[in-house]
Structures are given as structure tokens and as C-alpha cells.
Hints:
The structure holds 2 protein chains of 2 kinds. Chain A is an alpha+beta fold. Chain A folds into 3 domains: 1-187, no CATH class; 200-315 and 517-643, no CATH class; 316-514, no CATH class. Chain A contains 24 helices and 9 strands. Chain A has a 9-stranded mixed β-sheet with strand order 5-6-4-7-3-2-8-1-9. In chain A, α13 (279-312) runs antiparallel to α21 (509-548). The two termini of chain A are 36 Å apart. Chain B has a single domain, classed as Rossmann fold, CATH 3.40.50. Helices cover 37% and strands 24% of the residues of chain B. Chain B has 8 helices and 9 strands. In chain B, α3 packs across α4 (116-130), α3 packs parallel to α5 and α5 runs parallel beside α6. The model of chain B has no long low-confidence stretch (mean pLDDT 85). The A-B interface holds A 188, 190, 192, 256-257, 260-266, 269-270, 272-273, 555-556, 559, 561-569 and B 53, 55, 75-76, 79-84, 86, 88, 90, 94, 96-99, 103, 106-111, 113, 116, 119-120, 139-141, 155. Chain B: Pfam families: ABC_tran (PF00005).
Amino acid sequence: MTFRQFAYRNVIRNHRVYAAFFMSSVSSVMVFFIYSMLMFHPKVEDEFLREIAFQGMFVAEVVLVLFMMFFLFYSMRAFLEARSKEFGLLMHLGMEKRQLNKLVLLETMIIGTAAIIFGIVFGYAFAKFFFMIVREILQIDSLPLYFSWEPFALTIGTFTSLFVIISFISVMFIRDRDVIDLLKGYWRNEQTASYSLWRAILGLLLLVVSYALASSTTQERLIFLSAILPPLAALGTYLFFTDSLQWLMSFVRARKRWYWHKYQLLTVSEVSVIMRENARMFFISCMVSTLAFLALGTLISMSTFTHQFHRLNPLGLVYSSKIDNPFEEAHINSLTKELEDKGLSYHLNKFTVKRQTSSSTQKPVKIVRQSDINRLALVFGYPVVNLEQGGAIFLAYSEKSLEELKTKKVWTVLQENSIPLFINSVYPRVLFSPTELGTNVIVINDDDFNLIDEAMVGANAAQSTNHIFVFHVPQWTATKDIGLELDSMMTEAYMNEHSEELPFYFENSGLDYSFIRSTFALLLFIGLLAASVFFLASGSFIYFKLYTGLERDKLQFNALRRMGITDRELRKIVNRQLIPQFFLPWGLAMLHSTFAFMSLQAFWQGIAELSILKEILIVLGAITCVQVFYFYLIRWRYLSHIR
Amino acid sequence: MSILKIDEVTKVYEGKVTHRALNQLSFEVEKGDFLAVMGPSGSGKTTLLNVVSTIDSPTSGEITVDGIKPHELKKNELAYFRRRQLGFVFQDFNLLPMLTVEENMVLPLTLDNMNVEKMEERVQSVSEQLGIQSILGKRPNEISGGQAQKTAIGRALIHKPSLILADEPTGNLDSNSSRDVLELLGRINKKERTTIVMVTHDPIAASYCDRVLFIKDGEYFNEIYKDDHRQTFFQRILNVLSLLGGHVGDFSTVRLP
């Protein structure tokens, strides 16, 4: 038997031990490969999302590789610890440490190579299927399977180096031990679960502060908070697992009435040791889960997004121009031409919007003519407005404002022209988004409208009157390539902060929608990737840890059984030891994402007034189900080993 | 009154090679006895202890502990029986590493859901008896082997069991600690009238007992009772051991005075 054969047989005959490790490796290689396939896809690169897609996928791959590195490192170490008796024996028989390193390296490479090969084969096999899903999401015409060396090279290169690095690092842990310690077997370092009080308090404080900030997010502070919250919460989580948890446990321990009750004594002390030992891994689990939850939750909300987005932005293209805009005609003509070239049907409506000061609020109000609204209403099949002179109704900009304005009745005078108005109702549908027409809009009778000829105070005639061109396009999602020129002009003006000087404003809800969709799609990649690998990996990690401690646990449970523990009590003890391992990082991640969603909600309110609560609950529920299933699976394995 | 009664107990391990570990073994232990069971390797000592401690059941024969026939009990009742009637002292202590000495000792009581004041009282009196009050807050890895075994004895005593079973309690201890532990067991036996059954290889350890029972190949071989001098008792134990007919190498840890 050669040395290589020895290594090979070690792996093959220990396959039960390696199975979970192997599976997680294969799945991560597979996901990574599929991802690389997408990243290097010739079609994706030049047709869709361009730069941003590439970068997003790149970020996701980096996250994946980092997570895999931690995962591989931790599980390798757990493995080597579990096998320390075996290593001790080999060294006792005269194996050099150099040879031992070589053995571990060889074994890791055998598993690694197999995982890479299987991962790539499965990845290539599923790539087409995955492409089909992605094609649906991104609404690309076709996304064919292709063959190119790049994804293969990237995957093989990344994971080979990952496995080599990991095996070198993990071998260092055996090297430092004496043969006698190895032979005695891995006995966990049973130091008192120590913690520092100020770190413990700081951890809890950071969490509370970041939750408080997240739940009180307003749109103005969103940018600032999104920069400061993640690191704050991450640090808090880390300290929570390393110190705060131990601190809280010490409270439990101090209360003997509770602590010295039934098997609490056993479970509490055991759990606190487990938590302390694996604090870092739990921290990583928790953060990655949070990320995955967030990504998945955001994604799910996409399904309602299409519907809601359209209801809130019913107009296809909106071109608003100041009255002295010299390009008005040219722009409108080019838009119509583009629409015709694309073969899209449309209705063009022209609005005149005047600005006046309302006496009741002393604020500017935008005024629209009833006949303009009615023409648009006819196109949509919405109810028609019929106002007397002196009558007016509000025009709501969102569902929420619609509710609020329903019961509002206001007497007011348009100050510049002294036109008295009684606003007693609201138009029952949302027509314009706030960016298109602002938030304070009323509709009045045509005769009243014609009486307005004095410009608003503090503004010239050109500033107080706007023309708005509304293109209603039934196939509104197909307009994303229309008016790209205008869009880039606007972007440029905004970048240079000249937006005030720009004589027009152009909004293309098809383009906005496709832009938001792509952002979502990007999150889908990251979310699915992180989540799927994470599911397997975190469960497997707990499995390894249990496997490592199996011998010790067997002894312990044997002693306990002699002391008179019933089977039911044993099961309960195991339950209580396993549940925190499974559900504490999980629960904290849930809490994190709940608060993160709260601040996200503020963001959504800003752009689309979208409620994502229901979707989020569904996602969290589904993920919890998977986790519970995993918990029972692993508990079953563990119990059958222990007995 | 006999607290433990072994009646014609036979234990056969079925398998590829059938092995008869105990063969029609009978003896009785009176209340307040301090009994050592000796015998060469493979004589069935550990099997006997397992059968008595109810984690293994005899193939035939009957065991009675304090009037209860544990092998007729249901699984859960059996666990409760072990919890309340038996105390164990193991060769490798089997203390739980994450618990302090005090917590290790109260463990059997917490399982039985006793109230905290009573538990503290018990810990107080038992630790005084064992002389380990000073280490109550320490963890098993911070104390010596002798202290660990004393803790284990405390754990076995704390629920006032009717029978204490000890499996080579001095097997992992140096001679000083051994003496300490054995004298302690003897003292407890005298003072509290606790019945102790100890399985051992070591004639010195056996010489601390009131009575030594020898078994060979799973069968009763002989028994001797203590006399006034431990030295002569020890000598007599050695004599029986040599009669046991094993090879010299069998009494592995014999230390002649």
C-alpha cells in the first residue's frame, strides 16, 4: 500500500464522515460555477445590465468564497479534531509530521478534486435550467447555453486554491500538539466560559441602538443610516455571541431556583460552553442568514411590485416642460417617432398645469384643467370629472394620500387671481406620481382655469405654467428603450447639479421599472446563492461539531443514564442543547432582518409606497420550516448515535 | 436484613462466540456492609456491577435491591429506581466538565426536582463530610484526582441511596489519594451505615472492606471477612488470590508492603 493509496482509502472508507462535508462543497462549487457561467455569458455582458450585473455577480461570488473559506476552515478543524486519536496513533507508529501534513493535504485534495469535478458537472447540467429562470426574470429574449473556458478556469482555480489554503492552515493545528494529547483524544478545552462585562454590555447596547435607529428610519436619514447601521449591527452581533450571551447565562446561573431545576443544570451549562466555543461561527451564520433573508425578502416583494408599480405609475411616458422650453416640439416628435419605430401604440395627451398660491395654506398649488383630466380618464376608462365653476377636487399622488384626501374639505382662494374655490372631494384614482406632478394638485373647472392669468408670486410666467405631455402606452414595460437620450440629458444635469436650469423633465416608468427590476434581479442572484449554500453549510457545520464531540457525549450520557435519566429526559436534554445551536443565530438573524425591513420599508414608502410585510412573513416562515426540518434530521442522527 | 440479594444470576452474551460472563452466582449483602468483589481479569466483575446497576439485565436468576426487583420494573421506573436507590462511583470519575464541583454533586437532586434550600443543605453536609468545602466553586479540570473522586463520591451520596456501587474507584489515583478515598468510604460506611459494593483489582483497596468476595469465571469462588488488623487481612486476601489459580500477571496492580 503506497502512501497515496493510504490517503485514498482513508477518504473512501470514511465516506460517511465526509459525506456532509463533501455535499456542502459540491453544492457551493456548483453554485459558484453557475454563477460564473452567468457572469461570463456573452449575452448578459453586452445586452443587459452591462457593468452593474457583472459587478453584482462578482460581489456575490466574493461573498460565497469568503463564506466557503470560513465554512471549510471550521469544518476541517472539526474533522481533524474528531480524528485526533487516529493521528495520534499514526504518529505513535512513527509517522513524521511532514508525512502527516502530506496525508491531510492529499485527503483534502482528493475530496476537493472530487467536489470540484462533481460541482462543475452538476453545474453545467443545471446551467441551462438556471439560465431559463434568469431569462424569465431579466426578460431577455434568449440566454443560450454556451461553452467557454473562463467559468471553468475561474471555478477550478478558486476552489483548488481554497482547498490547498485550508488544508495548510488546518494542518497547523495538529502540528502544535503532542502525541500524547492526540492519543487522549480531542477533549474540549473546558475553560470557564469567560466574558468581559463591558464588552457584554456594549454588545447589547449596540444591538438596541441599531434596532432603534432602524425602526425610526426616515427617508432623509436613509443614506446615512445605511452606511452606519450594518457595521454597528455586525459588531453588536459579534459581541452578543462572544460576551453578552455568557453574561445573560450568568444571570440564569445565579438564580438557583431556576438553574437547579431538573435538567436545566445540564443544558444551561452545556449550551453556554457550546455558544462560547462556536461564537465566531454562529456570528458568521447569523450575518449570512440576515443577508440571505434580506435578499430573499426583497425578491419576493418583486411579485407584488409589478402590480403596484403600475397602479401607482399608470402613465407610460411623461414629459413635462416649462413653457419657454425651446426643445419641446423636437423632443415630443422624437418620442413619438421612437414609439412608432418600435411599433408601440400610444395615446398622447397634453396638459397645461398652472401654479398659484393657495390662501388656506399659503403654499403653491398646482392646478389642472378638468377637460385635460377627462381626456386622460377616457383613455383609461376612469370616471369623468364634472365640476361647477368655483368647485375643485384634489388629485391624489398615492393610495395613501387618496385615503387622506377623501374626507378633506377646504375653502380657499387662489391669491394671485382671487378665484374662490371649494375643494370638497378627491379624484378616485391615482394618475400622476409625485415626481411627475408634485404632491399638492387640484382639478378645477375650465372656466376658472382660463381666468388664471396672473403668474404666481415670486415667479415669472414661464415658471408658473407647465406643459405636460402624457404618453399612455398599454405595453408600458416595453418602453424602456424609449427616450434614452432625454434620460441621459437629465442624468447629466442632475450629476452637474443643473437640474433647476433644465427646461424639461422626463419620466419613463417602463425604464424606471426595468431599472428597479434589474436591481431586484441582482439581489436574486446574491440571495439565492447565499441562501442555498448557507442552508447546507450551516446545518452541516452543526453536524460536524456534534460528530466531533460524539465520543465525549456518549460517555457523558452513559454516566447520566447510570445516574438514572429516563429516555424522555435524555431526548429533552438533547433537544435543549440542539435548539439554541440551530435557532439562536437564526432567531437573531430574523430579528436583524425584521428591523432591516423596517428601514427598507421607509425606503419603499419613499419611492413606491409599497408594503412588503406580507411577503416578508411568508419568506421568513418558509425558511423557518426548512430550518425546523433540518433540525429534526440532525437530531435524529445524533440521537441514534448517542443511544 | 439483606439489602442486595443475588440469586442464581447467569448472564450469557450471545453473539458469534457465546460467552458466559456470570454463571449461577449467588450472594447477599447486608445493610451496612462494605463489600469488595475481586477476581482476575475477565472473571465477570464488571458484568456483575452492570447487572446490579440495572443497565444490563441477567439472562436468568433474580436480583433484589432493598426489596425491589429492579428487572421487573418498566424503563422509566427503572431510571427513577437508579436515581433514588443507587449511587455510582466510577474509575474515571465521570464528572461533567462544564459544571462546578457543587453543581456536579447536586445533579442527581436537580433531576429529582428537589427544592433549592434542601439541596444546599445536603451539599453543605456532604461536602463537610468529604472535606471538600473549599473547592465547591471549582471546575473538575482545576482539581486533583483525589478531589475529583471525592466529588464523585459526594454525588453518589447526596441522594442517600440504599446502595453505593463503586467500580475500581482507586484505579486512577496515586497511593495517597487512594488511601484518602478508601478511608473516606470506610468512614461513611461506618458512620452512615451506607452499604457499599466495590469492584476492584487492588488487594490494598480490598483490604479496607469488611468482607471480600472472590469470583472466578463468573462463579462464586470464596469469601473472607475482615479481622482486627488490616495487614493480616491483606495477607489473607493475597493468599486467596494466589489460590484463584490465575497467573501471577493477573494481579496487575499488586503492591506488596
